[in-house]
Design goal:
With 387 residues, the protein is an alpha+beta fold. It folds into three domains: 104 residues, Acyl-CoA dehydrogenase/oxidase, N-terminal domain (Butyryl-Coa Dehydrogenase, subunit A, domain 1, Orthogonal Bundle), CATH 1.10.540.10; 109 residues, Butyryl-CoA Dehydrogenase, subunit A, domain 2; 139 residues, Butyryl-CoA Dehydrogenase, subunit A, domain 3 (Up-down Bundle), CATH 1.20.140.10. Helix content is 43%, strand content 13%. The protein is built from eleven helices and eight strands. The strands form two sheets. A four-stranded mixed β-sheet has the order 1-4-5-8. Strands 2-3-7-6 form a four-stranded antiparallel β-sheet, with no helix packed on it. Helix 6 packs antiparallel against helix 8 and helix 9 packs antiparallel against helix 10. It is globular.
């Protein structure tokens, strides 16, 4: 038996063990992540000195193959492990990596990302939340919005404006903010599905030490790009992504309800192709390497797959796809997934943004014109002080 065969047997044995469902998705996810870590199956390509396994993409593929189609509760760590761990590995100090990464892989620390603002959505570089230096501390004031898991997070990766005298991309700095600091206020946002998966977060003179800074002062845009690339991988790449397994309930429903065989086969093929393409991207991300614009391919294809799977599920169920008996949670989940699927084309950068990235960075097309790109941030119309 080769080393890879032995690893496959270990993965299979672990995944065959029953998962304790604790009644709460978060509690179930944390408990499972700790078991995964203790079994030596968390952070497959993360260097060993930071709590990972230090293995290669072939081992990651084995684990992914064995987990495909299973209801594995790792989605609660999409941001923590899929987005924040790679950024710390790429841009964090040695102390930050040793202090946090292993705890993140074990599920002891949940992180969120603090990027979007009311006036800075697709244009993240337009962020206005201010961070002002005060000796060895920074004082943060402003607002973030659409922050997933903020209510449970111990830390948040926050992009802040540290210089308004330079163009917007050059005046940003990234920080790891403890979410329990005085002055941090978290308010849930109710979505169209009735869920409250997002929050708005307010900062009122929040003080953090300079050791919370990730990367150099003024170099936050480079860190932000790393985060966005990894976010697209986490959202679009299979395995522990939000796209993974979306065709499974559709295909299961088709066993009894029938349906368009060609459409169902097309969904299955697209998910399998996306899964294999994404493995290489995920392996680079977990190993601390930037996935590059190829992450936009995974995100764009994943968003399309989620929408198409949700639409096909509603179509399969016919009238019960839009009307159901009270208490039928299975039927109720189908239209809810359809409504929620639309958000996938926005999260992590809209599909239009992904197409622009691919056009410019892969196909070499001319850049989109930006009239404010070289202006000092203070001079951009919406940021000018009154008077």
């Amino acid at each position: 038996m080769t080393g890879l065969d032995a690893f496959r047997a270990r993965c299979r044995a672990f995944l065959a063990e029953p998962i304790e469902r604790l009644g709460d998705d978060w509690a179930t996810g944390v408990a499972f992540q700790r078991r995964l870590f203790d079994a030596g199956l968390a952070g497959i390509t993360v260097p060993e000195e930071y709590g990972g396994q230090g293995l290669g993409a072939d081992h990651l593929q084995v684990l992914d193959d064995e987990a495909t189609g299973l209801d594995i509760p790792v989605g609660v760590f999409t941001i923590t492990i899929g987005m924040c761990v790679p950024v710390l590995l790429q841009h964090g100090t040695e102390d930050q990596k040793r202090r946090h990464v292993a705890r993140m892989l074990r599920g002891d620390e949940i992180w969120c990302q603090l990027f979007s603002e009311p006036n800075a959505g697709s244009d993240v570089a337009a962020a206005q939340l201010r961070a002002v230096r005060d000796g060895d501390e920074w004082v943060l004031d402003g607002q973030k919005v659409w922050t997933s898991s903020a209510e449970r997070a111990r830390f948040g990766m926050c992009i802040a404006r540290t210089d308004v005298e330079v163009p917007k991309h050059r005046g940003l700095t990234m920080f790891a903010v403890p979410m329990d600091r005085p002055g941090v206020t978290i308010r849930p946002l109710v979505q169209a599905t009735g869920a409250t998966g997002f929050n708005e977060v307010f900062f009122d003179e929040v003080r953090i030490g300079d050791d919370a800074r990730i990367g150099d002062v003024g170099q936050g845009w480079a860190v932000t790009l790393s985060m966005l690339m990894n976010e697209r991988v986490s959202l679009g790449a299979s395995g522990s992504s939000l796209v993974s397994g979306r065709t499974v309930p559709v295909l299961e429903a088709a066993r009894s309800l029938g349906g368009d065989r060609q459409a169902l086969a097309d969904l299955h093929v697209h998910e399998e192709v996306l899964r294999h393409v994404a493995l290489r991207v995920r392996a680079a991300s977990e190993a601390g390497r930037e996935p590059g614009p190829v992450g936009s391919i995974a995100k764009l294809a994943g968003s399309d797959l989620v929408r198409r799977a949700a639409e096909e599920h509603v179509r399969l169920r016919g009238p019960t796809g839009v009307a159901w008996e009270p208490g039928d949670e299975g039927a109720e989940a189908v239209p809810r997934e359809l409504v929620a699927s639309l958000a996938m084309s926005i999260a992590g950068g809209t599909s239009e943004i992904q197409r622009t990235i691919l056009g410019e960075r892969v196909l070499g097309l001319p850049r989109e014109p930006q009239t404010d790109r070289d202006l000092p941030f203070r001079e951009v119309l919406q940021n000018r002080p009154p008077g």
